[in-house]
Amino acid sequence: MTSAGLAARLKSGLRLPVMAGPMFIASTANLVIAQCNAGIIGAMPALNPRSTEALDKDLARIAASVGTQPWCVNLVAHKSNERLAPDLDVVLKHKVPIVVLALAADPGLVRELQANGSLVFQDVIRNRHAQKCAEMGVDGIIAVAAGAGGHTGDQSPFALVGEIREWWDGLLLLAGCIANGRGILAAEALGADLAYIGSPFLASSEANTQPGFKAMLVEGSAKDVLVTSCFTGVKASFLKPSLVENGLDPDNLVPATSGGAININNGGANSKAWRDIWSAGQGIGAIKSAGPAAEWLDWLAGDYAAARRSMGLAQ
Ligand SMILES: Cc1cc2nc3c(=O)[nH]c(=O)nc-3n(C[C@H](O)[C@H](O)[C@H](O)COP(=O)(O)O)c2cc1C
């Protein structure tokens, strides 16, 4: 299938041109099911269920609950992920429709997943990295621009998507602060096929996030988000009020002593950075309430339709 054909095929089954970003700890099987049943591509990290057996059960439940709607699992393809081999077996067994690879993926893994029927996407923060992913034969590239939640990019979406679209005519997704209808439309105008949305789903009832986290998202806005490499050795976005609640001064953080090494074991050596110090992107100003993912996606669909109307575009 041509690249344009893949984008058209994926979009034709969706209510909105949106894929959810998988989120460590937060994304549950119930969230994936709610996202898919509300008409977008749902996603979760393979490491969120606490064991490979639990992952197996979750994937079976998702597959049985979403019909033909595409959904996604994120695999951390890094040598420090001790669950990679068994989790991969489970992902292959369930023929997960889309796999997002993170960190040091190898072409053999890409081919193995594709031969088993999965589409393989990889997220990038630089044009050069996108070129390497294209050489590995991925089906989709996720451009993570400045302002994103989790491990964020630092380039403007105008620059990042602009550079990638000069040479890549395959499926392209854009991430970073997309949280309303105009944001989705802007991603499409830049040349992305799908918007990739994470942070707003942290406020979903189905997300595994504490009530205090949800409240902080509803109350917060871009000014409350700090980008630092102090916790994981890689630039990531965190909510300043959660730093303060953990006795830290956002203006005087001490860099990670690990030398920036990424270690994924036990859900990440730095899992405190995700469990107690809360990550979210700059788009949280658009989160007005916490509630079921389907309710937020109903609002998003209306807001997207309004954005299209305001630009004189077909509904
Ligand atoms: C709390 C949190 C945890 C995340 N964990 C992961 C993860 O485990 N794997 C991954 O590929 N991306 C992860 N991300 C990134 C998201 O998948 C997505 O790229 C990002 O949220 C998009 O930006 P946005 O939050 O501004 O919408 C995480 C993001 C957040 C906010």
TrEMBL record:
GO MF terms held by the record: nitronate monooxygenase activity
Q: Name one Pfam family in it.
A: NMO
Entry keyword Flavoprotein: yes
- Which CDD domains does the annotation name? NPD_like
Gene3D superfamilies on file? Aldolase class I
Q: Which UniProt keywords apply?
A: Flavoprotein, FMN, Monooxygenase, Oxidoreductase, Plasmid
Similarity comment: family membership: Belongs to the nitronate monooxygenase family. NMO class I subfamily.
Q: What is this protein called?
A: 2-nitropropane dioxygenase
Please give the organism. Sphingopyxis macrogoltabida (Sphingomonas macrogoltabidus)
